[in-house]
Specification:
mainly alpha; 64% helix; Sporulation histidine kinase inhibitor Sda; Sda; Sda_sf
């Protein structure tokens, strides 16, 4: 995985969820978001 800023990471995660095609990529992004302590959605 290439190095991404927090904003890029969240954007990529949201985009991957919309396409709902690459389950493994979604899992990798989600794990990285949790590791960084980010919240990809405001209401969650």
């Amino acid at each position: 995985m290439k190095i991404m800023s927090n904003e890029q990471l969240v954007f990529s995660y949201r985009d991957a969820l919309k396409s709902d095609k690459e389950k493994e990529w979604i899992k990798i992004l989600k794990d990285e978001i949790k590791r960084r302590g980010l919240k990809p959605f405001k209401n969650r």
